[in-house]
Every structure is written in structure tokens, then in C-alpha cells.
């Protein structure tokens, strides 16, 4: 989408973030690094396709209805902070991050940005699997109408930018928690990005069924990523190059719906390797002591095979919404616990890397 088709609020948000860039930290090979990011980075929008919208449809059903990826301000569904409403925490940090662009005058929910992350390694599980088992990989031209920050936006990051003013974000990336951000401990991020720019290690673009999982190892990024906020609508037919699906949805109604949606939108379908975990492998010291007993409960009710995966956890999460009395003993923290159990699955699950 050309910038002249963005709304006034969306253009103002981009302009405000661009104006905050200091560019005062010299970087070795800075021009080459920036060129590599701009040429090879892709924004991914991670999502759980089987979570329920406010109207009772699943996220996949909502996405299939018109092929548009919507923000939490429209859907009310998130795998992050559930505060996308006027006066909520998300509303407040958007007000600060975008210089009140969406607040003066108040913009409708349809104008708010959607959240993703910038993938520089071609990770099969996307740049931020914390927020979902599947993801939309956007076309490179969409990156020009996104804003970025090093670290999550709710933390009030100071390293922000746009694709044409990316110096501060890049400085944070290569001088901060670089190994974690790239998802491969021990990898020199500068060398990697320079190799990309020189035509080095390419991202894998598999197609076909679940057997065609990407050959790279998953990034498992839970807490470290370059967040991206995409301004303007995201329509799969014009803005996406692929839907990347978790193999646990193969053979399910959700999987079939997404494969059909990709075909109707004229984009590729890819399948990453997925994650599986047994109850006895769920750590008690990662997201808290409630995780192992919760995993055991989920598996006892939803997985005769005794393996936790994205689809099994999704069934339990929907059950917690539609039949809350069955989960009453877990109290009001259950939604958060289920999110944290997903983090355990991403962080510790067995991955089908197919390398």
C-alpha cells in the first residue's frame, strides 16, 4: 500500500516515530547492515488460529471471512496484553509511542496498527512465536509502512524507527541481547546480516504439506525480538506472501480453512515443524509451578496420546471459555496460565527441525 493511501493518523504515526530516531551510535559496516535488513527482513504476524473471537468464531474463521488481518482493537483477541480499549494500557503505550497520532482526533479501531516482529533469520516458527503457533509472512514492501522498536512496545523502548530510519533499532539489535534476538546462540549477528546482504544464507521457502517443514531450526523467540507495528490494512491477497502453519492443524477444520484461504488469496502455504511436549517434560521453574499440573490436566482431557501441541492446547483454551465451570479450580488466572503453557511448549517442546 503506497503511503498516500494511508490515513492521516497512520501517516502521522510513521512520521512521529521517524522523528525520534537519533542515529548517534556509529556501527561497523552500518550501511551494509542496513541494506541487508531492508532487503532480507520480513515481518511475520504470529497468531493462534483456533482462539475464539468475541462473536464465537475462531480467529481462522474471522480471517477467512474477508482475508484481512485485524488488530486487537477490532477483534478483542490477543496473546499479549488484553488492554486494547480506550484508556487501557495498550491504548496508553500507543499514545506515547505514536505521539498521540491515533488520539487527536480519536481514530476508529480499524485504523490501529497490527503487531508483529521482524524476522531476519527466516525462522520457520516466525519472528515472535510467543504470540501464536502460525504466522502470516508479509511481502517486503509492507515493511516500509511499519514502525519498529528494539524490545516490546509496552516497555517504553527508546530504540525505535522506520525502515528508512532504522539506525537506532539496528544499534540496539547488534549491541544488545543479539544472540537471543537472532534465536541462534553463538551466531554473530553482524556477520550473519552481512552474509545475507552478500547473498549468503537464505531463508527457506518450502511449500506443500506438513512433511515439507522448513529446514532451519525454530527461533523459539519468547522474550527478545524486534517488534513491528504495521500501519494501514493488511489484506492477505495483496500484502502477504505466505501463511505458515503449525503441523498440528493438518487434517483439522482449522487447517483446511487456512489452506483454502491461502488458495483464494493467491499466496503460498508452508508448514513449520511444530512443537510437542509430554507432561513430565514441562518445567516448573520456567513459567511457574502451575505449569506441570496444568499440562497434565490438559493432556488428560484433550490428548489420549499424551502429547501437548498447539492444537491440543487450543482445544483446552476454547474449553476454558465455553465451559468455565470445568476449570473453576484454576481461578481467574487460568487464561494467563494457558498462555504460559504455550510458552513452555515453544521453549522446551521437541521440534521437528528436518535439517
Provide a descriptive summary of the structure in words:
The protein has 355 residues and is an alpha+beta fold. The protein folds into two domains: 3-273, no CATH class; 279-351, no CATH class. The protein has helices at 8-19, 30-40, 59-66, 72-75, 89-97, 167-175, 178-182, 189-197, 236-239, 253-265, 291-302, 310-322, 334-348; strands at 42-47, 68-69, 114-119, 134-138, 146-150, 160-162, 226-230, 234-235, 240-245, 268-271, 275-276, 350-351. The protein has an eight-stranded mixed sheet, with helices on both faces. Strand 9 (240-245), helix 10 and strand 10 form a beta-alpha-beta unit. The protein is globular.
List the helices and strands and how they pair.
Blueprint: H1 8-19, H2 30-40, E1 42-47, H3 59-66, E2 68-69, H4 72-75, H5 89-97, E3 114-119, E4 134-138, E5 146-150, E6 160-162, H6 167-175, H7 178-182, H8 189-197, E7 226-230, E8 234-235, H9 236-239, E9 240-245, H10 253-265, E10 268-271, E11 275-276, H11 291-302, H12 310-322, H13 334-348, E12 350-351
Parallel strand pairs: 9-10
Antiparallel strand pairs: 1-3, 1-4, 2-8, 3-7, 4-9, 5-6, 5-7, 11-12
Helix pairs in contact: 2-8, 3-10, 11-12, 12-13
Task: Describe, in short, the structure shown.
The protein has helices spanning 8-19, 30-40, 59-66, 72-75, 89-97, 167-175, 178-182, 189-197, 236-239, 253-265, 291-302, 310-322, 334-348; strands spanning 42-47, 68-69, 114-119, 134-138, 146-150, 160-162, 226-230, 234-235, 240-245, 268-271, 275-276, 350-351. It has 355 residues and is an alpha+beta fold.
